[in-house]
Design goal:
- By secondary structure, this protein is α/β, with parallel strands linked by helices.
- The relative contact order is 0.14.
- It is built from eight helices and ten strands.
- It has a single domain, classed as Rossmann fold (3-Layer(aba) Sandwich).
- The strands form two sheets. The chain has an eight-stranded mixed beta sheet with strand order 3-2-1-4-5-8-9-10.
Length: 231
């Protein structure tokens, strides 16, 4: 399985790439600039050099479209303001049977440039907008909105539950399995893609916590039976 991360040179994309490569997954860092993508991949390789089970072939860099053409799973980690434009650019590179994981949160910058509230999206959520813009046959999954990029780029466990929403149950299950490859992460079935709106809004709340308390807040869902986190 090959994972392309569009926007992979940013903190969230780089953090996910680092964790999945450490888990033995093949990752392609995507960027508008192929050279920049290759440089980001090399930095990540240096960070995990010598780790058990990690091969230099596990992380590479490419232009976004080329990265998507080579992948089974595409993960979109770009700011909301460029989401629609990026998807229009990527649409010819996407194919039926692929899974597109949308991590986008429609955050609005408030006074001082800090994003602490979500914008209204006509389709209902950023993930639903993605589903409207991609080709038929591509399964859209919403996930990883609330995982801290700072923690992903670190070496310790990530204290966070990942809530996964999709109208494709098989695709959602596959992404929950991928989420659980990150140490410390539990993954939960968040239901249909329309529920992504709720998960996206939680991110604004977490950003507010982080600003006020200078932390890296995540979400834990309690009170469920153990099997809820294992399917």
């Amino acid at each position: 399985m090959t994972i392309a991360i569009v926007g992979g040179t940013g903190p969230e994309g780089s953090g996910l790439a680092l964790r999945w490569a450490r888990a033995g997954e093949t990752v392609i860092i995507g960027s508008r600039d192929a050279k920049r993508a290759a440089e980001a991949a090399e930095k990540l390789l240096q960070k995990i050099a010598g780790a058990a089970g990690v091969s230099a072939r596990l992380i590479s860099g490419a232009e976004n479209g080329i990265a998507c053409q080579s992948a089974d799973i595409v993960v979109l980690t770009v700011p909301f303001e460029v989401q629609a434009e990026m998807l229009k650019h990527l649409k010819p590179a996407l194919r039926p049977g692929q899974i597109l994981v949308d991590t986008t949160v429609p955050l609005a910058a408030s006074v001082g440039g800090r994003a602490t509230r979500t914008l209204g999206v006509w389709q209902g959520s950023a993930a639903q907008q993605t589903a409207e813009l991609v080709s038929g046959g591509v399964s859209v999954v919403a996930a990883f909105h609330n995982t801290s990029a700072h923690l992903l780029l670190g070496d310790g466990p990530v204290d966070c539950d990942v809530i996964v929403c999709s109208d494709d149950k098989d695709a959602a299950k596959q992404i929950r399995g991928l989420a659980r490859k990150i140490p410390g992460v539990r993954a939960l079935d968040g239901g249909k893609l329309e529920n992504a709106r709720i998960v996206e809004q939680i991110t604004a709340l977490l950003v507010g916590f982080n600003i006020r308390h200078k932390g890296h807040a995540g979400v834990r869902i309690t009170g469920l039976p153990p099997e809820a986190y294992d399917v």
